[in-house]
Amino acid sequence: MEKDWDIIEVLRHSRHDWLNKLQIIKGNLDLNRMDRAKAVINDIVIEAQHETKLSNLPMPRFASFLLKANWDQNAFKLEYEVLDDQESLKIQDELLTNWTELFFSCLNHSIELFHENNLSITIEPQSDGIRFFFDFSGIIIHNEQIEKFLTEHKVMLDITVKEFFENELALEVFMPFI
Predict the structure, then answer these.
(1) Measured between alpha carbons, how far is residue 176 from residues 61, 86, 93, 128, 158 in Å?
(2) pLDDT for 160-171, tens place per residue?
(3) Please, is 62 exposed, middle or buried when counting C-beta atoms within 10 Å of its C-beta (0-12, 13-18, 19+)?
(4) Is 0.85 topped by the overall pTM?
(5) Of 21, 62, 114, 133, which residue is most buried, by most CB within 10 angstroms?
(6) 65-104 burial, b for 16+ CB within 10 Å, e for fewer?
């Protein structure tokens, strides 16, 4: 279940993340690795642009959940990308957020804990709805749990499994506008 974050906790985590990024830049500058420092800065700019696009979507619960996801004790690192931010779209924010929380929980219980696990979510608004591409890479040790989850929760959303192997899972989730 989702943790109830107060403003102090959010600011503390955000400040911690920014200090880490600044230390990486400073370390590269100290080592006279200008190209690497510039690359880190470019990565930060791209990440901030995706955060802005995500925050601008009319899905406050879902956006908040994703923005805080790497601060939770997930067994994977989350990245997300918003391909286009449309202000007029309307979806069932609570349904999407609840499904995503359950999916993250299932994924956490189905993967190798101390491995480099990554989940990427691409958000693509379209004319009739919004598509979410969930791409996981890492080590899945309990694929039957994921299969069971996807079967049980398929009625909640339009889910298509694109790939499912022991080291990769690709899902496409579509939500029509309401």
Answers:
(1) 17, 14, 12, 6, 9
(2) 999 999 999 999
(3) buried
(4) yes
(5) 62
(6) bbbbbebeebbbebbbbbeebeeebebbbeebbbbbbebb
